């Protein structure tokens, strides 16, 4: 009884399984069938294979708004492929076989179900033993160009985002490629530098990966073809940031010259464009337009191809100036550009420049001449008009503006100088211009020693005015007079005070003067009452108006010219009003 019971159970479950197997095709028969996909999936035992659902789901319904599920069926067994099977992983629309065997080959159907519809399409998995070492049956071809760098792309690169920890190794004729000067494996890409014809052949890329904690590997072979035709990066020869100057209304042209290194047919385009109102427009190809570009001119050489396209402006308008014209090159190797700016021609500036330079030179010479002739007058005018330009003499420790010195030795010869010093100078400098003078005999106290008075007075004066005639300093007595006054002698020799020489009459032989005075005279000159080159300053003798009741006949004085008094004032101290730290300039 037990054995009969066991046989009955086996027959019951066998019948139930047969009912399920027979029921599944009837369910698939209700789905819309798209047949068998044209593309095949190839693999070899021991590696992984990936089946993609061949149905184009977005064209069947909107997957974003329509819930659906995907199931796979093995047409050979008629059963659904589940995750429970060994080394099988279902992920989204793909079916992964991690460690494939010969038993996995066959046809698999992808079924997509929604709440109301069902779709199916089959794909074929081919599993073959490797017959050529490590070469696969399917060998897609990739082409590279000789004499330039080329890249080979691994066909498995599309799976990198679907797996974890992927790494790819490259092989050529089953030998692993190590990085060197010419071959650089770059994971899913293989760089071949300066490709040669002997680089053609079969290459294999093997990817090792991890998927759901399962480690697998898969390989793909490809055929590399090396073409004799090649092209390199185009080189822009002209223009290169040029500036072109033309006159308005004229015509002009500009060539765009491009050299494309390579061999064979070059797929390169050269075009002109212009920037207008911050936008770029291609220049018209119609030669009848005012602004147009000529047809492309090509000439081949052993090293490459020269391409020239000319930009023409039959008439330059004002709106064309300051515009940027760009020559653009379009190729698979790069997109170099060159540009130039159109500017108006520079005006002829030679004539106005010559006029300006001549005027400047004339004004300069006139200025020098006027300054030479009227230096004294201009300086005095500036002093009167702008006293704040000059520092004040207050607080400099000086009491007098000038010390008046004259030799009083010989009677008659020094009388003229004494009269000029005692009467004329005070009347003009003190009476009219407000200067303070120290005159020995007038401002000194009776009984004082002359040597002490002279030395002390010189320390309190800003200038030393030395008056002399042709004979007053040209004698031994005059020299002794100067040497006896130690302070005066020291001022003459040491230049301790600024000295102004006043010659009452013209000196015929300056060599007879004392050496100290002669050196000062040679260095800075002397102010004379009579000069040959100008009108004599004292032709007429008359008496200056005095208030002391002296008769006109008893007083005889000189009548210097206004030029003489201006020169004296020029060398006198400047009574400015500016503080010492604010001095701008002085004459």
Task: Describe, in plain words, how this protein is organized in 3D.
This protein has nine helices and 32 strands. By secondary structure, the chain is of the alpha+beta class. The chain folds into six domains: 1-26; 31-127, Sandwich (Immunoglobulin-like); 141-228, Immunoglobulin-like; 236-344, Immunoglobulins (Immunoglobulin-like); 351-382; 388-582, Rossmann fold, CATH 3.40.50. The strands form seven sheets. Strands 17, 18, 20, 23, 24 and 25 form a six-stranded antiparallel β-sheet that branches. Strands 1-8-7-3-4 form a five-stranded mixed β-sheet. Strands 9-16-15-11-12 form a five-stranded mixed β-sheet, with no helix packed on it. The longest helix has 36 residues, at 350-385. The chain is rod-shaped and about 155 Å long.
Name the poorly predicted regions. 1-25, 531-557, 582-587
In DSSP terms (H or I, runs of 4 or more residues), the helix count works out at 9
Do you know the CATH architecture of the largest domain?
3-Layer(aba) Sandwich
Secondary-structure content class: alpha+beta
Name of the top-level CATH class of the largest domain: Alpha Beta
> What is the CA-based Rg, rounded?
58 Å
> Strand portion, in percent?
25-35%
CA distance, first residue to last residue: 149 Å
Question: In one word, what is the shape?
Answer: rod-shaped
CATH homologous superfamily of the largest domain?
Toll/interleukin-1 receptor homology (TIR) domain
Question: What is CATH's topology name of the largest domain?
Answer: Rossmann fold
What integer is the average pLDDT? Answer: 80
Largest sheet: 6 strands, antiparallel
The helix fraction, in percent, is 10-25%
* Overall tally of structural domains: 6
Q: Count of DSSP E strands?
A: 32
